[in-house]
Amino acid sequence: MPPRTVKFRAATVAAVLALGATLLAASPQSGAAAAEPAPVTDYCQGQCDDILPPGENGNATLVDILGNKAFGTHPAHSDDQLDRYNGLVAGHAGLTDQKLTDFFNDASFGVPKDQVESVTSPRADVTITRDKASGVPHIKGTTRYGTEFGAGFAAGQDRLWLMDLFRHIGRGELTSFAGGALANQGLEQQFWPQAPYTEADLEAQVDYIRTHEGARGEQAMADAQAYVDGINAYREKSKKGRYFPGEYVLTGKIDAITNIGEIQPFELTDLISIASVVGGQFGGGGGGEVQAALSLLSAQQKYGVAEGTKVWESFRQREDPEAVLTIHDGTSFPYAGKPATARGTALPDAGSVTAEPLIHDRTGSAGTDRKAPVKAPATLRKAQGIYDDGVVPEGSLPGSGSGAQKRGMSNALLVSGKHTASGNPIAVFGPQTGYFAPQLMMLQELQGPGISARGVSFAGVGMYIQMGRGQDYAWSATSAGQDITDTYTIDLCEPDGSAPTKDSTHYLYRGTCTAMETLERTNSWKPTVADSTAKGSYRMQVRRTNYGIVTHRATVGGKPVAYTSLRTTYRHEADSIIGFQMLNDPGYVKDAASFQQAASNIDYAFNWFYADSRTAAYYNSGMNPVRAAGIDPALPVKAERAYEWKGYDPAANTAAYTPFAEHPHSSGQDYYVSWNNKQAKGYASAGFGLGAVHRADLLDDRVAKLVEEGGVTRASLSRAMAQAAVTDLRGEQLLPELLKVIRSRPVTDPELNAAVQQLESWRAAGSQRRESSAGSHAYTYADAVRIMDAWWPKLVEAEFRPGLGDGLYEALTANLATDESPAASHGPSGAHSGSAFQYGWWGFVDKDLRRVLGQPVKGPLAKTYCGNGDPAGCRDALLSSLKQAVAEPATEVYPGDDNCKAGDQWCSDSIVHRPLGGIAQKSVHWQNRPTYQQVVEFPAHR
């Protein structure tokens, strides 16, 4: 049994026994109405707000879809939060507490009688009340089963098609379900190898929770079953009533005339499958050690082993002393650092690494985008081809597309009561999860025995609120990304004792030649009205070992090996349900300390934030493995018992995990900010990019100033967030240094001087990417923004490539892309996704230029690169790259796509809610901001 579970049981046995006596007493299948629960007191008193664009309603009938395509109409509540969300760009400057609800929903509990739009009672023990303003379901049950059944029924009402998509993505069956579009092929090829399971594996995870987490585990699975029952009740009712999502007709699942066809029933294992997608997108951390090894080898080949390692470590920035921190009071939480003397590291031989093949036996259109449109009935032609580019456009999901190795997003700003006008803590926080129509999450309120919360849950795993508010507290999360995934190097062998090759399918496990397990998915598709992709098929295959999934083959010291990826949460995709159950339980969370204990039961890598009327607090969750002494977690390690995780048992993928006290946590700090930055001193970064300049600086600088001035309000903290959301990090943090180098001598070229003046004016005005007036679709400093967008990738290359050389420069850019502007299409969630400036060479450029300028630098790069350290040479490199940028036309800087004409800067930046169903939404102004966001200030406490 893993130590985390042991610890939980030992610490909370009395609470568990009480839970078993109270919650389990309401038999899940009884269905009998229990006594009306005690009235819930809302201690936020009208000071809790939230927003989730475009709208709550994510289901559309066939008629709705055809109306949207023909006339641009929208189903009720499918887009009524979009304008308020977008309006904050222009409205934040004059924001007051009283005006917050112009841009946010009132997130109070319940629905006033005059605001009730509808009441549904799918069972006698639950009601689903929807409000007129936003259509959010307020679910109130008199039994535990009824409450969760209602949550599932409401999820069916709002996200049935989306949940169906995601259970198929998780199972690696998207193309067979939704069509063979090239983007669909790519998506299942990226997600399924991260969490490949058999049906028995999925069932085992359900059983593990039920049998290893005591009464809470049993209750969690009972809740999950009630939720699934609710989904299925709506599935059956909507099918019989012919108001099911129209996408089932367009993808050939149901006949529009005869109603023949089926929506497959949901099962508990579907929730595990969906959880694997959500966790993989937002709660992973670590991995990428093979690519890191390749860049280290490149550095060693250029400079020699000792000097090359020093250069590589300076770019790796595991512990940058200048990095912005969430816990900034100096408290240290050592984890995953570089050992003084590493043991067991297994670097590949140069040129020997090859990726493990995934796709086999392609037929027809597999691997292509070849179309063969069907002859659609006249009534359906308006919707023909809606999924030709994929049901989830390429790169739209964080963790997919060219940024697949990158995870992150979401931000949080909290100020303790000592520095607020009211004396109560204030929080403005939420997850950035991309922009979709419908959204991946859905808003809901849950009130029932042992549950009292409002907020968001990912569709399909919405038994509990995952981020939101309780009776007198609120909480949210940002992706943490600490290292919970390692790469092991397994020696290959042959069972007959013959010499192995790189293609061998056996490996040495604790001295025994052991067969790799083969997991497969065979998918086939044919054209439909929605997806015209021609008929095709292929087989996906991965090899699973006791050290994880095989990702690469190589040689080490001439001997054939395979590299495997092992994460602690594999086979434990839904164990975090226990932590979420606790967060929803008003009998458990009563203060910051109990919140932190609840968050510690969440296994994925997240930063959790909390605010009530007394305390702001923070906790970093995750199943952090206890590694053997001397292991370097940044590089591949030998798969030998001496180098395994402590207490490692491959049967259930369990190990010893670091205890609560070793996770970064804090209560009552003056303020907290998080934008996927470094958590605390000593907590080593799991990847490249946590250095001297980070997008969290956009928050930290503003919040620190507010705290210094005092009297912080909900409006002033929201303004700080909104200002950061439209600010170009490069302009605010790096342009001053660039201009200082350039202005060290007069710029004699008139065209270049004019460009420099434009950049100076933009910087003086705040470096914002913001419309000249609301709705103008043109930036105030459009030319300066265009110059910066064109210049940045060129200046980085001009600054670093000559010194690093082609090989090392390209290896390092494979570890960390140089840029992620709003207009870039290579970020972690593709173009038009809002999130920007998380991954880039900002910190490298900053440290390098400060060295050139003779300024002090803590944790400098091992060498000075711009102009080889010569200020004049650096200036020449910057001006030469600037001249190239000035000459680049807008049509090349912003090349255009399916949403925008070439050269349209505003549109290129704009947020597009990618349609996951048949309803499209208008583009809105770029904001680097949470998708779901809360603004909370509790004036009272239980």
Name a few traits of the molecule.
ten-stranded mixed β-sheet, alpha+beta, single chain, 30 strands
Write structural notes for this entry:
The protein is α+β, with helices and mostly antiparallel strands. 33% of the residues lie in helices and 17% in strands. Strands 3-4-5-12-13-14-15-23-24-26 form a ten-stranded mixed β-sheet, covered by helices on one side. Strand 12 and strand 13 form a beta hairpin. Helix 1 (3-22) packs across helix 8, helix 7 (199-212) crosses helix 8 (214-241) and helix 17 runs parallel beside helix 20 (842-852). The radius of gyration is 27 Å and the shape is globular. The protein starts with a helix and ends in a 6-residue tail after the last strand.
What form results from the Cα inertia axes?
Answer: globular
Number of helices: 23
Strand content: 15-25%
Tell me the number of strands: 30
Structural class: alpha+beta
Largest sheet: 10 strands, mixed
Termini gap? 36 Å
Tell me the strand order in the biggest sheet. Answer: 3-4-5-12-13-14-15-23-24-26
Oligomer kind: single chain
Calculate the mean pLDDT score and round it.
93
Portion in helices: 25-40%
Computed CA radius of gyration, to the nearest angstrom: 27 Å
Low-confidence stretches: 1-35, 400-407
